[in-house]
From TrEMBL:
Source organism per UniProt: Massilia cellulosiltytica
Single Gene Ontology MF annotation: phosphatidylcholine lysophospholipase activity
InterPro entries, per the entry: Ester_Hydrolysis_Enzymes, SGNH_hydro, SGNH_hydro_sf
Signal peptide location: 1-19
Protein name (Swiss-Prot/TrEMBL): SGNH hydrolase-type esterase domain-containing protein
Amino acid sequence: MKVACLFALALLAPLPVLAQHCGGTVRAATPAVARKDPPKWMAQHEAIRAKVAAAPKVDVVFVGDSITAHFSDDDRFARLPGLAGRTALNLAVPGDQTENVLWRLDRLPLEKVHPAQAVLLIGTNNLRGDDTACDIVAGIDAILGRLHAAWPEAQVVVIGILPRGKDMQFALERRRAVNAALAARTDIRFVDPTEAFVCGGTNACGYYQDDLLHLLPAGYERLWSILRPQLGY
């Protein structure tokens, strides 16, 4: 019943965000419920909300989509060198786009936790549609605004959009443009994953699943190897 009520409230969507530098209404920067299987997505949101409300001391929070969500699969966080022994809270949900993350952050009791660091990896699902690079950056900007407002003392680390698809060329120009815009920010630490994952335009390194999007365990080890120095672990 609670999930159904939340879904009904979610339909009362906020007015679209206007980002003048993108030339009009920016869907990617307007909080929204996921369009695919909203009841399941809402149940996932409720589970995350309960985790945040009950969280003990948290060292680092992870925010993002399926790549981020599966980072903690199989108790991986407890085994990663440097992260083992720290308390990590994963708020990511598979399939999320920037607008879905915004909707969730607006409805989580973020004041309950006080992480020293936050890690954001989001945007690859926005590449599937017609969002421009400017749109995606506007969405990420909005997320970063939420994170800085909720945890002003936290260090925020942003991982750029990973290479993906055939020959690692999927939405190449948009991906490069988004990552370049993020790299230019001075209020975050930025991790560009391109060189670490492009592997000569193949999957010979064994980082990706067959869909050339989601990561295998070796891919997460590689991701951690470039993220860890930015976290100082």
